[in-house]
Amino acid sequence: MRNHRRIIAIALVALAAASMLFAGGSSESADATSASGRPVLRVAMECGYAPYNWTQTTDANGAVQISGSGDYAYGYDVMMAKLIAEELGYDLEIVKLDWDSLVPAVLSGTVDCVIAGQSITSERLQMVDFTDPYYYASIICLVKEGSEYENAQGVSDLAGASCTSQMNTVWYDVCLPQIPDADILPAQDSAPAMLVALESGRVDLVCTDMPTGQAALVAYPDMRLLDFSGSDDDFEVSQEEINIGISVNKNNGELKEAINGVLATLTVDDFNAMMDEAISVQPLAQ
Q: What is the pLDDT of residue 189?
């Protein structure tokens, strides 16, 4: 769901390197095989963005060990990665990377794809290809119980609120400026930091997507979720900003089509059921 503008400069450098190191679109990850002799699907994510993905210390609930680490990754993205790898006959490797490093890793061939809650934006499509959506997420706000904004019925009712969100996201760059007379504080480095800012009372509200908001309600029972979708006073965002896909190298059309084949067997109800399961087992919910 998060939209990153600053990544373009980084990614273009990586693209130039990729064209020299991986002429013809091949990469070492595409040729990698496991001890079982099966090909390895290397999937990158932050491992720190519940309920999409997170890090935990055990393999509980079917978590997958993070490459080069004793920790494990789980969440909606890992569940989806496991399903895709199983259906395609791959062994799965989870690669933990910072948000800024995800697209460059696809461009360079360090990983085969990114499954990390990325919006399918025209900006990103200049650099990488995307599969069909593997989740659809609406925009919401979170406030504290008892807040003067708790009963807001639309964006205009949030007028004058102090607010923040995660840096380099559509929530911060596109949505918050739509609040009349908003006091927009500096962006937060991560979704957890954004929630701490609200919980500690430093801001009146934060803007995020529905899965992140639902997960926050489990971790912070004193928060309230404001959903203006379907009203005449909702945030104005494009479809590309709420459709979430899996990014692959533009030279890897075969993998893109293979993943799309798996996604085609799933319905929106399947996506929602998987997300509900991820939310129910996220670390903060236990």
A: 85
